[in-house]
C-alpha cells in the first residue's frame, strides 16, 4: 500500500464552500471566480440546492467549489466534512437597517466558524450599494456590518476557538471587480489575522482566493 494510497488522493484539489444567507451574492461570486462577467447585475435566481464547479485557479491547484443555497442554512453542515476553506458572504445592504437579518447572518456565521474551527475562512461583506457604509448611521442599532462591528460582535468572542486560524474580512462590491489574473501573495505579506484590506478595485477576489489556497491544508 504505502505510497499507492496517495494515488487516490488528489493533492492538488481543494474543497471550498461559499456560504451565506439568501441573496448575499454567492452565486455571483462563483460566476466571477469562473470569469463569467454575466455574473454581475443579473436577476436573483435563488439556488435551490447547490452549484458545484471545478475551477483551475493556479497552475497546479483546482478548486472544488460549492455554492450552497442560502435558504436552508441548516443543510450546510452536511458539506462541512472535507472542506478545506470557506468563503462566507454577508449582504451588507439588507442587513443594514434590519436587525433580524443582521442577527441571522451573524448567527449562521458563528455556526460556520464554530463548526469549522480548523480551516481558513474569508468573510465578504458584500456592499451591493457602494455608498451604503457612508450613508449608514453609526448609532448602535443601525450600524452596518463592517470590520469593526464584526470584531466587536464576532471575532473577539472566538479567540479561543480560532486563535491560530487565519480569518480575513473585508468589504466587496462585486460590481467593481474584474477578474483578470492571479496576483501573488500580497495579503500574506501583510500578515494574516483580521487583516483589513483597503486597496484598489481590481483583483481582490483573486487575492482572497489565493489567500485561502495558501492557508489550506491538503486533506
Ligand atoms: N449591484 C450588485 N449586485 C449584486 C452584488 N452581488 C450580488 N448582487 C446581486 O444580488 C442578487 C443575489 O445574488 P446571488 O449571487 O444570486 O445570491 P445568492 O447568495 O447566490 O442567493 P441564494 O442562491 O438565494 O442563496 C443578484 O441579483 C445579484 O446580481 C454586488 O456586489 N453588486
Ligand atoms: Mg445562489
TrEMBL record:
Name of one Pfam family that matches? Arf
Q: Which UniProt keywords apply?
A: GTP-binding, Magnesium, Metal-binding, Nucleotide-binding
Q: Which PROSITE patterns match?
A: ARF
Q: Where is the signal peptide?
A: none
Binding-site list for Mg(2+): 27, 47
Keyword Cytoplasm set for record = no
Q: Which SMART domains match?
A: ARF
Record InterPro entries = P-loop_NTPase, Small_GTP-bd, Small_GTPase_ARF, Small_GTPase_ARF/SAR
Q: Which residues bind GTP?
A: 20-27, 70
Q: Does ATP-binding show up as a keyword for this record?
A: no
State the similarity comment. Belongs to the small GTPase superfamily. Arf family.
Q: What is this protein called?
A: Small gtp-binding protein domain containing protein
Species in which this protein is naturally found = Stylonychia lemnae
